[in-house]
Amino acid sequence: MTEQHISDTGARPSDSPAEPLLAGLRVLDLTTALSGPWATLTLAGLGADVVKVEPPGGRDNARGNPPFLGPDGLHFGAPSDEDVSVTVMNRHRDKKSVTLDLKSDRGRKIFHDLVSWADVLVENYSDGVTKRLGIDYETLRAVNPRLIYCSITGFGDGSPYKHIKAMDIVIQAMSGIVEVTGFEDGPPTRVGLPLADMIAPLYAVIGILGAVVNRQQTGVGQRIEVSMIDALATLVAEEHFDVLHAAGMPYRSGNHLPRLAPFGVYPTSDGHVAITGLVDDWAHALFRAMGAEEMMTDPAFATRGARAANSYVLNDAIEKWTSKHTTDHVVSLLAESAVPAVPVRTPREVVDDPYLRARESVVPLQHPDADLRHQELMGSGIPIQFSGAGRIVPGRPSHVGADTETVLKSIARLSDADLQLLREEGIV
Fold first, then answer.
1. Which residues are tagged catalytic?
2. Contact 269, 325 (CB under 8 A)
3. H-helix or E-strand containing 133?
């Protein structure tokens, strides 16, 4: 890793006196939407120096995602120049924002100066775009042989699906995850989080860090390619749905996992509770708490295999019991029996959890303008705890192009006159 920094990111350091692990790692961010920005947010959160490059005016379509926060507060209307998408407030934190027209010869020349400075470049352009712009890996490695070039794609290089727009719901559907989510008698169901957009970038970060270690040994960079379909396919393949389906278990099992029964979400008189009794001791303790000790010796429920084979009957019996009691009563009673059971929480309850806030898994979001705040807005932290390295609590994003002058003066050695001419020509 390198030592030159452009300027302080404005992020609040943790109490640890040590530098963050990736301090000095220079990253060029050419990403949009979620999959790419999530990767560079993680790198920035670990201390990397991230420069986000967009065309003048901004290109990231996430900037148009409602709701917006601005002088008139939080709203879902058309954004003003001072409004910022809450999405951007989360994904673009601690990244310097530079505008540069990469379609122009002058813009590409300046970009090559940035590439010479960088250790890592991350992009998630559609297929063929980097080649048309002249910023593909083969071109840029001639500029900087040490460059680690990471591409996050929808379907991978040479895919027969390259004509399909790789949106998260598209990847979820094609990966099989939608087919295995939902209730047996209901339709295939989208997972409530954008899994493809969030898991692929984590693999990308792992690949980047592996390439950084390899470069320390070889002195040269390389290209990394991670596809969203690959990332979700690994999850689907882990569960062996084909084997389970052949054994008579449905692809979609709703709130329960039959092969581990009892294992699922059960209704109570005032909410829902998650219970797992997959091992015999837990299952038998659950039966005692239910006042159904006879189930402990019943051949249909006494062992794991029998419970899996009779999961429908078992889950019906548990639901009849839980539905007569409050969530607190069920959780408290099962806690006394050492059976894992917890209430199903809302997203608001999660982000308000004092423990998670103390661990900085969730942190307050900040508007680029320091005086614009909204006390209820929380965003993602970096959920990794280190004993011997400093951490950065993500700070605030920059307005589009706010750091163009600072970055281009520092790295490309441009003068005020150069920048003025570039503005007049629409290049920055």
1. 197
2. yes
3. helix 129-133
